[in-house]
Amino acid sequence: MNILVCVKQVPGSNNVEVDPITGVLKRSGIASKMNPYDLYAIETALTLSEAYGGSVESITMGPPQAKTVIEESICMGANKGTVLTDRKFAGADVLATAYTLSQGIRKAGEFDIIICGKQTTDGDTAQVGAEVAEYLGIPNVSNVLSVDSVKGKKVFLTVSLDEQIVKMSVKMPCLISMENDVNSPRLPSYKRRQGLKEDMVSFLTFADFEDQNADHYGLNGSATQVERIFPPEKNTDKTVIEGNGEEQSAALFSLIQGKKLI
Known about the structure:
With about 260 residues, this protein is α/β, with parallel strands linked by helices. It contains six helices and eleven strands. The mean pLDDT is about 90.
């Protein structure tokens, strides 16, 4: 069984800047990390591989330095990974991102199960997984709590819906998106990190894709555009109320009343 995990490098801090013209995050020069939700996807893939055999690969889209999250996935137990990187991919919305990933996945090989995290901490759309599945023409299941078993060409799942937990099966090849906190992701292995080899991480660019229409990628291929985005204003003003309990409660009541909150 061949399993692919989609991972992403996200900012490691909330203190990031936004390009006022394009409306996208300025990622250069800031600390980055593996998207936390993707760790549950990797753990699920590795557990399946251990139980049923096969290989685990990872794939990401981003600048060349995004290879660090591929290397981290390998240190956790993946066999190898692929970085999709090209200036033509920059500024992509969820639609263009999903299309780029689908093109990269087609080039990377054939997979029985593709696993994504629920969402990313920088975009929070939770849409890319389903859109990748649509572009690949395979079934998709979101909000997966666990992969219970694999029998023949079917995967049996426990899935969280709005008001109930259901059991279902889906035919392979398929794409599933894991909920968060569904397992305990293993730590990267120091021994595996020492054994990292250059050929474990491959790079694909626009030139490698079957679709050579640049209008399908990046900003040009994005169906949505950000009208305005800005970091939240930080309010550090504070009022210290001193005195005994009665004095403090009276002052607090007066303060709240003065702001017309009551």
